[in-house]
Recover the amino acids of this structure.
């Protein structure tokens, strides 16, 4: 039961939200190759570590936003709005 | 009259001798006292053989005095209801409790199942895996299932009420033993909100078993004083009879609270800091026949004496590898239990202990181990021998002692389950020969026995320290209290628990799953050498106790067999729940009517009063058909279909998804979502469209209408209403946020009354309305607005039935008023129709139903949309996927109509099209919709067939659960192929 900091509403229980998979996935142009299109459809990063992902506050404000979450420890390093770039987490050590 | 409670001490114990209780054990009436557990009451009555084991049906007795019980798990019927696998060691005795042994037939004293024990060489661990080839395991499967098991499920209803609660606190302390109480005393002095949770019905933990001097007081007085201090602290809450059963992410823990009669509460707590003061569990020794009734953990024997005033057995040998069992021996002796000997694996025993033993006339056999035990049911005799100098075998000379019990101590193992659930790593400590908490990413600390501080003074000191640290970490100033405890205990464990001699198939490691040392040897021999494999192969630690008294020994044995350090073998991961949690507790109040919310039509009462037979369609309760004049379902559907085709049918389409998309970029946005061209749709017009996902698969279909220049009304299937709203939002918010529009789901705001049939226009022209319903003003696929009966209405000429049809949307609260008006005007000419009739009507018209006639592989081209797709230049979701070679193949499953050669054929959705060649017969697709058409007086269907588009007119074979018959592939439109009726 993660505690997720919605950028609009503040901290809420995980059950308020829906998970939306990897964020910052670019939609290729209509003239993309089959390989590029296939990569967009089916391939996603699966890191053991920080994952940049989309979440929807389904039972709250209804807005999509992003989290930088560690897939091993579930620590949430950052929450930022949809459309904003990946935050710089270079100073995040092993706490 | 026979003397009852033969083993009850005359004085002492924390029982209430003024409140005697009566209970039944296997039908025999016995006595006990308020404050007894079922186990202590049974022992007080001198009863030792209490249960039969899971696999071998061996007699078993009480092994512990706590949550770790692995022997006396019984079926209990009391005020709480009926339950099986009850730990009699923690279940309070109540008046009238009916207690029964489990897993024995015909009874506890004679069990036919014991034959498995006598033939045990045939049934090693995993024997069933090896017999899957022959004989056919189905032959003996039911017998095995009947013989194995832990009791028979109760058939009575569970009368408990279950509630869910949420709680936040700054510091959660799990366990109210000396370490936990010291932590609470420290933390309470700050302003932090403290919650301390204890699974026992009273606080005190190990002090209830092993009284001591603490802070200058005897432990009973210290406990009372501590309780008063904490109760008087406004920032402290104490929960007893409450088990912390699970530890989840971000410091959420769950608690099952049994403190109220008939009410069980399931708490979800999110806390700032956790202090686990869960203590440690004593571990058994492993020797031949170490499972007989009368053989129990040493600390438990002492608990029965001190806490319950019960002599567990009249005579007990004490066996140990550490100093703690000596306190047990002396306590038992002083309270009248004969102690013939202390069998100590260590060759050197501390002088003061030797002296105290000698004073009591207790023999110490040091450097000795127990090698075997005897007894038909309960223990009768114990055999022991000296260890050989290399500790790898025993000397030949043995001694036998007659006695009724063994109090054994293999030392302690931290109760680290919650720590492990939190993701904490456990590290093996060779000196203490147990697993200690290592490190954990969550905000948790471990104090006392759970952290390897098995001596009281160490536990109390650490508790006080960490309680203060937890409050500080939670943001509150806090200084630890000083709780002075003399360091009187000693431990001096020697890491040896397993007798290195004897038949290993008779040396028990896991009592509950009847796993022996031989089973672990077998696993190692067959190369199941990782701890995860050994666990699953032997099933050790997989029973209801999660290995509380077996994991450590199993790991130790495996390490020895594989020449690995124990720390390298490691543990498996503990999962919630620590103790069983009933399904009722998890469900809370969400059952019956509260299981899931029902969505009712705005005019639900009208339908109910007109014979509607409701069915659940998703969350919606909708009329399946109308049982007017008592007609049955088949008749109703047929008559409803014909009524609509002849005159006027009324269908309540309120659950249909409706989404308003409004803004300067609304059209552009929808043009990127729909396959169809949206931008060419004129104001006041409607178009049928489909939506795809990015993989080109159809995800929904429905009409879209242009109400105003910048206002579109999107219709979705009823099932898709919420899903498609979310879909649109996701594309807008995540991919095209720069497009200016608002997406507004309005499904439940508008009721939809559909009037369809040749008489529908005439009826509408007679109602009180300012709308021009003539075909010139309102042709098929057009919309208009106005009022009916003064109520605002949106009228769309859309047809799902193939007849002239008007979908009238009005604010939901007026639904019933308008329906009544239509029926008043229409009289006998109008009939309500249900979902089943609607499905027949649309099948006759060949209208595809997304999700029924399409599946997860159906793309836009398969449904016949290639014309529309090729004409649209602009990009839309899924378009790129339709360009792939696989998506364009001609042999894909394509949408077709089906006409069985036999007009009365029983065609069913789910039947397969099959190829004709018998040898290479395979499925070519499925029948997706089927019905008997009352309009056409024949069976018709729709389906997805390979190369369907080019096979119109062909006769194919259909296969339905073994039966085959022939049908013709046809155009899906069976009725009114020119559309004359619909366009009227």
């Amino acid at each position: 039961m993660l505690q997720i900091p919605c950028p609009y509403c503040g901290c809420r229980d995980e059950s308020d939200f829906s998970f939306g998979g990897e964020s910052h996935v670019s939609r290729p142009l209509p003239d993309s190759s089959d390989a590029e299109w296939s990569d967009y459809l089916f391939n996603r990063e699966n890191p053991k570590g920080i994952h940049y992902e989309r979440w929807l506050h389904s039972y709250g404000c209804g807005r999509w936003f992003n989290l930088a979450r560690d897939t091993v420890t579930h620590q949430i390093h950052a929450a930022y709005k949809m459309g904003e770039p990946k935050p710089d987490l270079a100073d995040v050590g092993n706490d | 009259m026979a003397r009852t409670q033969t083993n009850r001490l005359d004085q002492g114990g924390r029982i209430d001798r003024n409140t005697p209780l009566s209970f039944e054990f296997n039908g025999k009436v016995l006595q006990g006292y308020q404050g007894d557990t079922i186990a202590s009451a049974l022992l007080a009555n001198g009863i030792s053989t209490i249960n039969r084991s899971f696999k071998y049906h061996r007699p078993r007795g009480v092994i512990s005095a706590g949550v770790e019980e692995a022997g006396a798990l019984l079926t209990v019927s009391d005020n709480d209801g009926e339950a099986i696998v009850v730990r009699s060691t923690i279940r309070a005795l109540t008046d009238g409790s009916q207690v029964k042994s489990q897993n024995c037939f015909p009874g506890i004293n004679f069990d036919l199942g014991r034959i498995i024990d006598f033939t045990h060489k045939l049934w090693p661990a995993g024997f069933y895996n090896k017999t899957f080839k022959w004989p056919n395991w189905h032959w003996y499967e039911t017998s095995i299932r009947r013989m194995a098991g832990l009791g028979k499920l109760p058939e009575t209803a569970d009368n408990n009420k279950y509630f869910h609660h949420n709680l936040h606190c700054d510091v959660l302390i799990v366990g109210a033993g000396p370490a936990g109480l010291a932590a609470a005393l420290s933390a309470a002095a700050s302003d932090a909100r403290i919650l301390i949770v204890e699974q026992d019905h009273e606080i005190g933990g190990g002090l209830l078993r092993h009284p001591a001097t603490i802070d200058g007081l005897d432990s009973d007085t210290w406990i009372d004083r501590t309780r008063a201090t904490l109760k008087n602290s406004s920032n402290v809450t104490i929960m007893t009879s409450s088990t912390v059963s699970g530890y989840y992410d971000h410091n959420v823990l769950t608690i099952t609270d049994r403190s109220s009669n008939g009410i069980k509460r399931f708490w979800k707590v999110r806390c700032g800091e956790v202090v686990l003061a869960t203590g440690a569990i004593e571990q058994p020794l492993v020797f031949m026949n170490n499972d007989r009734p009368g053989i129990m953990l040493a600390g438990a024997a002492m608990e029965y004496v001190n806490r319950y005033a019960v002599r567990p057995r009249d005579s007990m040998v004490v066996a140990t590898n550490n100093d703690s069992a000596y306190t047990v021996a002396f306590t038992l002796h002083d309270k009248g239990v004969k102690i013939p000997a202390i069998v100590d694996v260590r060759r050197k025993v501390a002088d003061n202990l030797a002296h105290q033993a000698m004073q009591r006339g207790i023999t110490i056999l040091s450097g000795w181990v127990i090698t075997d035990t005897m007894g038909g049911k309960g223990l009768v005799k114990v055999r022991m021998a000296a260890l050989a100098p290399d500790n790898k075998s025993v000397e030949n000379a043995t001694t036998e002692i007659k006695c009724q019990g063994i109090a054994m101590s293999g030392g302690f193992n931290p109760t680290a389950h919650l720590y492990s659930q939190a993701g904490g790593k456990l590290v093996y400590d060779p000196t203490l020969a147990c697993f200690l908490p290592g490190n954990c990413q969550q905000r948790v600390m471990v104090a006392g026995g759970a952290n390897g501080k098995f001596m009281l003074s160490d536990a109390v000191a650490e508790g006080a320290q960490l309680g203060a640290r937890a409050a500080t970490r939670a943001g509150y100033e806090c200084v630890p209290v000083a709780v002075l405890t003399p360091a009187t205990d000693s431990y001096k464990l020697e890491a040896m628990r397993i007798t290195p001699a004897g038949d290993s198939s008779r040396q028990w490691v896991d009592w509950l799953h009847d796993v022996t040392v031989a089973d672990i040897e077998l696993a190692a021999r067959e190369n199941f050498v990782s701890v995860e494999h050994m666990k699953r192969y032997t099933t050790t630690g997989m029973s209801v106790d999660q290995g509380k008294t077996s994991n450590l020994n199993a790991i130790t044995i495996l390490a020895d067999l594989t020449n690995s350090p124990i720390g390298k073998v490691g543990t498996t991961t503990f999962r919630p729940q620590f103790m069983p949690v009933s399904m009722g507790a998890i469900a809370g109040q969400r059952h019956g009517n509260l299981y899931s919310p029902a969505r009712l039509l705005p005019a639900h009462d009208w339908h109910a009063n007109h014979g509607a037979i409701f069915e659940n369609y998703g969350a919606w309760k909708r009329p399946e058909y109308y049982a007017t004049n008592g007609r049955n379902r088949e008749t109703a559907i047929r008559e409803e279909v014909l009524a609509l085709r002849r005159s006027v049918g009324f269908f309540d389409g309120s659950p249909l998804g409706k989404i308003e998309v409004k803004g300067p970029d609304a059209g552009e946005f929808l043009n990127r979502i729909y396959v169809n061209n949206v931008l060419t749709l004129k104001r006041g017009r409607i178009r049928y469209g489909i939506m795809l996902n990015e993989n080109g698969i159809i995800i929904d279909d429905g009409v879209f209408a242009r109400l105003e220049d910048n206002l579109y009304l999107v219709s979705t299937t009823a099932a898709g209403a919420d899903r498609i709203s979310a879909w649109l939002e996701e594309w807008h918010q995540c991919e095209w946020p720069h497009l200016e529009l608002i997406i507004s789901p309005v499904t439940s705001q508008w009721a939809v009354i559909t009037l369809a049939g040749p008489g529908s226009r005439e009826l509408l022209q007679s109602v009180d309305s300012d709308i021009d319903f003539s075909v010139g003003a309102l042709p098929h696929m057009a919309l208009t607005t106005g009022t009916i009966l003064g109520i605002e209405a949106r009228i769309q000429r859309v047809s799902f039935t193939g007849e002239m049809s008007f979908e009238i949307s009005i604010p939901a609260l007026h639904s019933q008023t308008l329906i009544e008006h239509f029926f008043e005007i229409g009289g006998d000419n109008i009939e309500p129709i249900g979902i089943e009739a609607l499905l027949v009507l649309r099948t006759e018209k060949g209208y595809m139903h997304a999700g029924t006639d399409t599946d997860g592989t159906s793309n836009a081209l398969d449904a016949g949309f290639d014309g529309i797709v090729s004409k649209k230049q602009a990009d839309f979701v899924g378009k790129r996927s339709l360009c792939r070679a696989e998506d364009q193949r001609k042999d894909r499953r394509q949408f077709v109509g089906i006409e069985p050669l036999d007009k009365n054929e029983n065609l069913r959705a789910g039947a397969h099209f099959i190829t004709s060649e018998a040898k290479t017969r395979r499925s070519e697709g499925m029948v997706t919709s089927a019905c008997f058409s009352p309009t056409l007086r024949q069976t018709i269907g729709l389906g997805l067939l390979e190369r369907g588009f080019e096979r119109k007119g062909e006769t194919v074979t259909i296969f339905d659960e073994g039966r085959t018959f022939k049908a013709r592939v046809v155009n899906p439109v069976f009725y009114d192929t020119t559309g004359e009726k619909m366009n009227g």
About this structure: The helical segments of chain A are 34-42. The radius of gyration of chain A is 15 Å. The beta strands of chain A are 3-6, 10-13, 18-22, 50-56, 64-70, 76-81.
